[in-house]
Amino acid sequence: MFSAMLGTTKSQWKRRIDTSLVETLMLGVNRENERHKTDIVIDTWFRSFENKFPNLLSLNLTGCIYITDASVLEVTRRCSNLHTLNLTCCDDITDASVSEVARRCSNLRRLNLTHCDEITDLSVSEVARRCSNLQTLKLRFCYKITDASVLEVASGCSNLHTLHLAGCDRITDASVLEVARHGSNLQTLDLAGCWRITDASVSEVARRCSNLQTLNLRGCRNITDLSVTEVARRCSNLHTLDLRLCRNITDLSVTEVARRARFLPSLFL
User: Fold this and answer.
1) Which of 109, 112, 240, 255 pairs as cysteine with 86 (C-beta 3.0–4.6 A)?
2) What is the CATH number of the domain that holds 143?
3) What does residue 157 show for φ and ψ, rounded to 5 degrees?
């Protein structure tokens, strides 16, 4: 029905549908056999719609693997009040459109770029500079991200409470230390697969991020009992701790976690 109504540039429905009051739009798809057809429709849809979306606050394009910069750029022109943008698995998205999102959508609170393989430090740094109200940033498996942009995020986004860096294996202690220094509001930190980080930065996270509730260190092979014990002693609000594949962890720190984190419902070893 969606394709039949809106799938052509001459569709009369584009003129008849009033989009001015739309606040949430979810166009993401989950079934593989529907992806290609739906994504092509979406890519032309925003560009050909006659109305703007002045009240659109949330846009979810998860799984739209054929979405291009063209449609995301059109989103930024029509949806300047956007608070939430989810581009998970939008493989063809590049720095060009994400940088424009940062410039035009300064009220952005939540940005999910998980598995956006072409994203680099260039656009993430732009987000950090322009979107000072950002609360959630997910860069999981954005393999080109380095310390350079994470340092900018740490210093520029003081309201950040959720940061996902899983799979960003170029990240080192340098940027995680900066996240810790500015992370008084941080509640969730996902560093799974960031194998370069050491006890130095994790201990600093423990000392400075007292509101931390979720910490994922899975696959951080240089982490030892030293920093995990510090997490156990300092992070009294911790709900979830993932230490799977941390080969240097022993009974010493796990016992300390068990003794101090009485309300820890999720511990993965």
Assistant:
1) 112
2) 3.80.10.10
3) -115, 80
The residues that bridge with 242 in the sheet, in sequence order, are: 216, 268
pLDDT tens profile 119-156: 999 999 999 999 999 999 999 999 999 999 999 999 99
Q: Average pLDDT of 75-101? A: 92
Angle between helix axes 121-130 and 95-104 (nearest 10 degrees) is 0
Residues 8 and 123 in one domain: yes
Give the count of beta carbons closer than 10 Å to the beta carbon of residue 150: 27
Residues 13, 128 share a domain: yes
Identify residue 226 by its one-letter amino acid code. L
Based on the fold, state whether residues 130 and 219 are members of the same structural domain: no
Residue 229 lies in domain: 164-269
Last residue of a domain, one of 160, 175, 196: 160
Nearest-CA neighbor of 200 among 224, 182, 236, 171? 224
> Rounded CA gap, 183 and 209, in Å?
6
Q: What pLDDT, on a 0 to 100 scale, did the predictor assign at position 77? A: 83
Token pair, residue 103, equals 């410039």
Contact yes or no for 180/156 (Cβ under 8 A): no
Q: Kindly state whether residues 108 and 210 are assigned to the same domain.
A: no
- Among residues 160, 177, 206, the one where a domain terminates is 160
CB 224 within 8 A of CB 200: no
pTM: 0.86
